[in-house]
Amino acid sequence: MDYLTIFEMIDQANKRIKQLGGVEMRGGKRKGAGRKPRQTARKQVNLRLEPEMKDKLDRICEAEEISQTEIVTRWVDAYAI
Questions:
Q1: Which of 30, 39, 62, 71 is deepest in the core (most CB within 10 A)?
Q2: Could you tell me how many helices (H) and strands (E) the chain has, helices first?
Q3: Domain count, the chain
Q4: What angle in degrees, to the nearest 10, is found between the helix axes of 51-64 and 68-78?
Q5: What is the pTM of this model?
Q6: Dihedral angle sign, alpha carbons of residues 5, 6, 10, 16
Q7: Does a structural domain hold residue 69?
């Protein structure tokens, strides 16, 4: 019995799909693929923290199960001017 490698099977499938007028299964740009854009763009902020403060921030984020972006957003929102 003759066994095919996975690559040979994909190659044969792609040839057959092309014969039938379809699209190959090899990735690339596809309509509707990828992450959808946000409605409002974010701005990047770079901070320099003491190592202890960075560790503390990491522990807070882990304990709250949220990202650094989310915790900073909450802190800024809570600071009323």
A1: 71
A2: 3, 0
A3: 1
A4: 90
A5: 0.52
A6: positive
A7: yes
The CA distance from 14 to 70, in Å, is: 44
Residue 79, domain extent: 47-81
Whether residue 74 is contained in a domain is answered as yes
User: For the stretch 44-67, what's the b/e string if a residue is b when 16 or more beta carbons lie within 10 angstroms of its beta carbon?
Assistant: eeeeeeeeeeeeeeeeebeeeeee
User: Is there a contact between 15 and 23 (Cβ–Cβ < 8 Å)?
Assistant: no
The residues, ordered by sequence, that sit 6+ positions from 23 with a Cβ below 8 Å of its Cβ are 17
CB 14 within 8 A of CB 24: yes
pLDDT digits (tens, 9 = 90+) for 19-64: 777 665 556 677 777 788 888 888 999 999 999 999 999 999 999 9
